[in-house]
Amino acid sequence: MTVTPIPTPLTLPPLTFAKLAPTQFLAAHLSSSSSTTSTRPSGRSPSQPRSPRCHTGSLTHAHGSSVVRCGDTGVVCGIRGEILRREDVVDYQAPESDEEGSQGGDDDGMEDELVDEHRRKRRRKLDAFEMAHLNLLVPNLELATGCSPAHLPGGPPSAFAQTLTQRVLTLLHTSQLLRMEDLRIYSDPTSTGEEDESLDGKTRKREVKGWWVLYIEILFISLSGSAFPTAWLALLAALHSTTLPHTYHSPEQDKILSFPSPVAARRLRLYDMPVALGFGVFRDEGKGGRRWVLVDLDGFEEGICGEGGTVVVGAGGRVVRVEVAGEGGVGVEGLRELVRVAERWREEWLRVLGEGERGYDGGG
After folding, report:
1. In whole angstroms, how large is the CA radius of gyration of the chain?
2. What DSSP state is assigned to residue 362?
3. How far apart, in whole angstroms, are the C-alpha atoms of residue 76 and residue 90?
4. Torsions phi, psi of 23, nearest 5?
5. What b/e sequence results for 24-36 when a residue is b if at least 16 CB atoms lie within 10 Å of its CB, and e otherwise?
6. Residue 275 and residue 236: Cα distance in Å, rounded?
7. H or E, element range at 257
8. What DSSP string describes 173-188?
9. Is the pLDDT of residue 96 over 70?
10. Could you tell me if 107 and 259 are in contact, meaning their C-beta atoms sit under 8 angstroms apart?
11. pLDDT (tens digit, 9 = 90+) per residue, 232-286?
12. Kind of pairing, strands 243-244 and 247-250?
């Protein structure tokens, strides 16, 4: 007697299902009715970023460095300062004075606060303009390290790497992150600012003899989504740990000298600590056009989401920059929710970095 075998249902391992039908695989996770909230293949909710890990001061030859990891994306950032002499700058003009608006007409405390806030904002704009004019920030991003199968080592800089480098430079200037005072080199070793008191008690203006140029190297050791936000976090951590030697111009030797003692070194002071949060929009055409907004995409999700962007948020919920690619199907309310998620993400990042919110309140 012949026994007819009972057919067994065809089942595929999750990894195979994800490779054969990635869109259906992601939709099956997000639309699962087993829980009240949608769950991504990584186990995160749509609005849950990956927890960052950070270590600073790893490179002893750099003035500042960091290693940051978000999920399977790892970035190393090193910052090295080089001196730019004033004689090497063609047609240099001293920056505008910040005396405009320094006089308050009334004794009202609210009026004084408004004047101070106006001066702080003006100073940050002038600092950002002078840095861009002198090209004091020089980032370079390297992907050809074997960080992913798409970026093999030894190759020329890809268009993606050049785009990321330009985005980093643009955000460095638009965020008004650094203080110009920390990068200036004066003619007197005792100078601590643009103005100091002389022996006769009168205030005199110090002469700028040079500047620090910050060369920023960002190296990817592994890449699995959210390249720009992770690179920006590594840059923030490296800037946070950057310490520059105290330098001055010697008129006798006509050279810029530095104090060898690390006690005299100065740490960079940041106006703010804005963080970048990437997001993507996933549409399931088979479910009546339902869509989900996913934050901090991993490599698998980036290959499926056709729309997305980046939200950069600073202290006090200040929106520094918004980038949207694709059809922009997030909407105004969706952007507001992304800003709220970015605020929570920034608080977590500050805890990881070991810095309290008080140090980066957006003031001057």
Report:
1. 25
2. S
3. 34
4. -65, -45
5. ebbbebbeeeeee
6. 8
7. strand 255-258
8. HHTT-B-GGGGEEESS
9. no
10. no
11. 999 999 999 999 998 888 888 888 888 877 777 889 999 999 999 999 998 877 6
12. unpaired
pTM equals: 0.85
* Overall size of the chain counted in residues: 364
Distance separating the N- and C-terminal Cα atoms of the chain: 91
> Tokens 């008191």 map to which residue?
197
> Bridge-partner residues for 267, per DSSP?
243
State the pLDDT at residue 11: 67
| Strand 290-295, strand 275-284: pairing | antiparallel
How far is it, in rounded angstroms, from Cα 351 to Cα 229? 17
Return the amino acid letter for 349. Answer: W
Contact 312, 171 (CB under 8 A): yes
Which SS3 state, helix, strand or coil, does residue 116 take? helix
According to DSSP, residue 10 is labeled: P
Question: Hunting for tokens 């991003």 — which residue is that?
Answer: 141
How many other CB atoms are found less than 10 A from the CB of residue 204? 11
CA 66 – CA 219 distance, rounded (Å): 11
Q: Which pLDDT band, with edges at 50, 70 and 90, does 104 fall under?
A: very low
For 35, the token pair is: 């829980």
Instruction: Report the C-alpha gap between 282 and 26 in whole angstroms.
Output: 9
* Cross-strand bridge partners of residue 325: 308
Phi, psi values for residue 185, rounded to 5°? -120, 125
